[in-house]
Amino acid sequence: MSVRAIIIAFCCSLSIAMPALAAWQLDNEKSTLSFISIKKNDIAEVHQFNSLSGEVDQSEIKFVIDLASVDTKIALRDQRMRDFLFETNKFAQATFSAKLNNIDLTTMKVGTTTSMSLPGKIQLHGQSQSIIIEIVAAKLSNNRVIVSAKQPLLIRAQDFALIAGIAKLQSLAGLPSISNTVPVTFVLQFERK
């Protein structure tokens, strides 16, 4: 066999193997991650992050939140959250990562859904916590999957060294209270590249 034939055979084998190794990329435009803050004991407000990224491959999911993209619909509050709560000058991102066990998005049939518990790690504000997220995945097409929270994920400020930041926001806004626990929900669309 000639060198040229070997190179052609190798390239063909790569092109056949690549779809199995193709990663699913998060589509930021079609994805949302929201959280609810509660102030003055019973005033709830919905906020979101506008810049999300992530990838699912055969063995792992990784999801990244750009904390500077926080959007509360009030510019001053956004800036205070960036400066005093998230401290984005030191901690620009929050991440979730998990190993995928026996989950293969490519073999799911179009139109089907599956529920699962996804144990992984959240890294936020220099802290890392193990967590289990309950999700529902739905196969929209051969190249598109939607993953959503089956139930809200509760993030506690004390688990991520955010108590001082919340106290600072409370003082700046002149509020009697801001909850130290926030429910988080998400709907994420991934596209196979």
Blueprint of the fold:
Blueprint: H1 3-21, E1 24-26, E2 32-39, E3 43-49, E4 52-56, E5 60-66, E6 70-71, H2 75-85, E7 93-99, E8 113-124, E9 127-141, E10 144-149, E11 153-156, H3 163-173, E12 181-192
Antiparallel strand pairs: 1-4, 1-12, 2-3, 2-12, 3-6, 4-5, 5-7, 7-8, 8-9, 9-10, 10-12, 11-12
Helix pairs in contact: 2-3
Mind explaining what this structure looks like?
This protein has 193 residues and is of the alpha+beta class. Helices cover 21% and strands 46% of the residues. The chain is built from three helices and twelve strands. It has helices at residues 3-21, 75-85, 163-173, and strands at residues 24-26, 32-39, 43-49, 52-56, 60-66, 70-71, 93-99, 113-124, 127-141, 144-149, 153-156, 181-192. The chain has an eight-stranded antiparallel beta barrel with strand order 1-4-5-7-8-9-10-12. α2 runs antiparallel to α3. It is elongated and about 55 Å long.
Query: Unreliable runs, pLDDT <50, ≥5 residues?
Result: 1-21
User: What class do helices, strands and sheet pairing give?
Assistant: alpha+beta
**SSE topology string:** HEEEEEEHEEEEEHE
- Give the helix tally: 3
**How much is the average pLDDT?**
88
Shape: elongated
Question: How big is the Rg?
Answer: 20 Å
Total count of strands: 12
Record the strand order, biggest sheet. Answer: 1-4-5-7-8-9-10-12
Bin the helical content. 10-25%
Largest sheet composition:
8 strands, antiparallel, barrel
Termini separation comes to: 33 Å
- Beta-strand fraction estimate: over 45%
Which terms summarize this structure?
193 residues; alpha+beta; 3 helices
